[in-house]
């Protein structure tokens, strides 16, 4: 029988890549300390920061919000209602319930009012929904953080998310994406600082934390995520990890330590300028959100210009 390394009681959790056995109570302590250490290690934020936690209703972002709150950060939530049927309705309710539980404010951005819902945008965009949805979410996270006076945006990306993206970027040697892959993106040119404090914790570890601390989270995946390639990369990484525990963590940390610094000194910095329509930072003339907005307005015009079928 495995025993908790802290109190010698019966362990309920074993973390193979740390060779660590813990009881539930000490697991919660270990998890929260690890988040605090990650914040310190990368210099992500200070107690004086005003943190906006982007919450999706899933285990990662709600766990992150709870940990930051318990660690004493001034952390409020931002939920972007993407209008994806029951999935969005349910996740919004869970975020609201959670904000009441911890007594922190939840800001809600309603995409149907700001732009249009993801299923509607999907009808006029041939790309997978997740790719334009990602840029829409990033746009509103940044916009609302600035509008509401927050100094940092925190997202719930975990080690599995980060290594899946890393693997995909390495396989295509996408140096520009690799250079931007970091758990801390400093405030710059109209972008608020962005941090990923769960980047050294696996999906399983976050799920365990959420279950042990009774967080009510949405278990379903977004219906558009079904064929996402990131799921394949996660499966491949999981197989390697199973055979050789610790690979994921090493892959990610060694990339940050050995490879990324060399990349950032060798690549041309991307020049950003204000979008000529909305003024938000972008690499081109018009930002991706305004391009979607333009496509939507063309479609609406086409619909209103159709002849009236009524006699
Ligand atoms: P995903 O891109 O769905 O893997 O989510 C990555 C992170 O983005 C989550 O951990 C959240 O921090 C944030 N996020 C995802 N969906 C939403 C949403 N609807 N509203 C606010 N934040 C979100
Ligand atoms: Fe954006 Fe699924 S959450 S498409
Ligand atoms: Zn213990
Ligand atoms: Zn714009």
UniProtKB/TrEMBL annotation:
Which residues take part in binding Zn(2+) 2?
A: 275, 278, 287, 290
Q: Write out the transmembrane intervals.
A: none
Binding locations of ATP = 54-56, 60, 80, 156, 161
Q: Which cofactor does it need?
A: [4Fe-4S] cluster; Mg(2+)
Q: What is this protein called?
A: PP-loop domain protein
Q: Where is the 2-thiouridine synthetase TtuA-like N-terminal LIM domain?
A: 3-27
Q: Name one GO cellular component term.
A: cytosolic tRNA wobble base thiouridylase complex
Q: Which residues bind Zn(2+) 1?
A: 4, 7, 23, 26
Any one Pfam family match given in the protein's UniProt record, by short name? TtuA_LIM_N
Molecular function terms in GO for this entry? 4 iron, 4 sulfur cluster binding; ATP binding; metal ion binding; transferase activity; tRNA binding
Where in this chain does the record put each tRNA(Ile)-lysidine/2-thiocytidine synthase N-terminal domain? 51-221
The positions making up the signal sequence are none
Instruction: Name the InterPro entries for this protein.
Output: Ncs6/Tuc1/Ctu1, Rossmann-like_a/b/a_fold, TilS/TtcA_N, tRNA_thiolation_TtcA_Ctu1, TtuA-like_LIM_N
Q: Which GO terms describe its biological process?
A: tRNA wobble position uridine thiolation
Q: Which UniProt keywords apply?
A: 4Fe-4S, ATP-binding, Iron, Iron-sulfur, Magnesium, Metal-binding, Nucleotide-binding, Transferase, Zinc
């Amino acid at each position: 029988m495995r025993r908790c390394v802290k109190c010698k009681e019966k362990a309920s959790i074993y973390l193979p890549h740390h060779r660590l056995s813990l009881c539930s109570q000490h697991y919660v302590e270990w998890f929260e300390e690890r988040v605090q250490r990650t914040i310190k290690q990368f210099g992500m934020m200070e107690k004086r920061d005003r943190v906006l936690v982007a919450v999706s209703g899933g285990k990662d972002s709600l766990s992150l919000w709870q940990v930051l709150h318990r660690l004493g950060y001034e952390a409020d939530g931002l939920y972007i209602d993407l209008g994806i049927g029951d999935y969005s309705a349910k996740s919004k309710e869970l975020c609201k319930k959670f904000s009441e539980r911890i007594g922190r404010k939840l800001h809600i951005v309603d995409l149907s009012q700001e732009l249009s819902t993801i299923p509607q945008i999907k009808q006029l965009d041939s790309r997978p929904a997740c790719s334009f949805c990602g840029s829409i979410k990033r746009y509103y996270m940044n916009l609302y953080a600035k509008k509401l006076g927050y100094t940092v945006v925190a997202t719930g990306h975990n080690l599995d998310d980060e290594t899946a993206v890393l693997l995909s970027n390495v396989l295509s040697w996408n140096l520009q994406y690799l250079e931007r892959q970091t758990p801390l993106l400093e405030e710059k040119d109209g972008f608020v600082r962005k941090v990923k404090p769960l980047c050294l914790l696996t999906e399983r570890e976050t799920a365990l934390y959420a279950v042990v601390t009774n967080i009510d989270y949405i278990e379903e995946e977004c219906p558009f995520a079904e064929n996402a390639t990131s799921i394949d990369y996660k499966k491949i990484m999981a197989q390697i990890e199973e055979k050789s525990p610790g690979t994921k963590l090493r892959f990610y940390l060694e990339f940050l330590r050995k490879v990324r610094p060399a990349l950032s000194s060798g690549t041309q910095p991307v020049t950003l300028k204000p979008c000529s329509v909305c003024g938000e930072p972008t690499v081109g003339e018009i930002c991706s959100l305004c391009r979607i907005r333009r496509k939507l307005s063309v479609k609406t015009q086409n619909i209103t210009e159709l002849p009236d079928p009524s006699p």
